[in-house]
Design goal:
homodimer; 137 residues; Multidrug-efflux Transporter Regulator, Chain: A, Domain 2; 2 domains; two-stranded antiparallel ribbon; elongated; DNA-binding
Chain lengths: 137, 137
DNA sequence: TATGCCATCTGTAGCGGCTACAGACTCAAG
DNA sequence: CTTGAGTCTGTAGCCGCTACAGATGGCATA
């Protein structure tokens, strides 16, 4: 298979990743510094693959450090697979915790908006509830 | 009622808000600069109330700009209440969108971990799915 | 009075994960 | 030869804190 060299703009188009972000990933060592044609960065299909991987991992909410780890583990046999699983499972726990947090917020907000709609209270129910002292921590 | 002056440490304890954060809120104009006893900031019960308000609004996920707006609307009659409602409703929409995002992540992650457990696949299912090209954007 | 020791002070820099410039250059087409 | 799009480097900004360093303040104890 041919591997035609592409420039950063094309890489950006193919992966949906911002040009500035690509250069940022290079700066922080998440993407390797590609060879240059003249002054311009010259990418190949491997870069498209790797950057796509990064983007998809980011969409799943992995931090850049986690993505780095995943990249290191990619293609490393069954032992690596177990490590990947651990990483994913712990990230999943995170995600679920964040969902739980947001649901708590959602409930309170929805209640407040409702109280507002139903409201014959003297004063705004949401403001009132924000002023209500439930003590520290 | 007396309004005994308290120092920043006590304000922190009463509100559960970090000392550095209190000073930060002052710098950005979210909390007023209090009078000083000597060089030390001297707070009263109003400050405890206001900071508690801020903290609770933050816990509901309002941005600092939104909190600023809410503070401006607090205690402003029924017209303000409508504005507060609008703000809260739009924030609620945000929160719901974030929940939806996270749930999408959760599903994919949970599936991947499961595939990993069930796995007799050649190669790590999660890694594979991250490499799978679903095209740009 | 000297000595700790904690609380507080100011100022600045760092985190993550980008994003947004400014100002220079390269390169192909018209 | 000029124009325009693409790319380059470098730096600074965003949010919402958090974490220092290094100087004071004020109180209790020896």
């Amino acid at each position: 298979m041919a591997d035609p060299a592409i420039q950063i703009g094309e890489l950006s188009r193919r992966t949906g990743c911002n040009i500035e972000t690509i250069r940022y990933y290079e700066r922080i060592g998440l993407m390797p510094a590609p060879p240059r044609r003249g002054r311009y960065r010259s990418y190949g299909s491997q870069d498209v693959g790797r950057l796509g991987f990064v983007r998809r991992a980011r969409e799943l909410g992995f931090t850049l450090d986690e993505v780095r780890a995943l990249l290191g583990l990619a293609g490393g046999g069954p032992a690596s697979c177990a490590e990947v699983r651990t990483l994913a499972a712990s990230h999943l726990t995170d995600v679920r915790a964040r969902i739980a947090d947001l649901k708590r917020m959602e409930r309170v907000l929805a209640d407040s908006v409702q109280a507002c709609d139903a409201g014959e209270d003297p004063g705004c129910p949401l403001i009132q509830s924000l002023y209500a002292d439930r003590g520290p921590s």
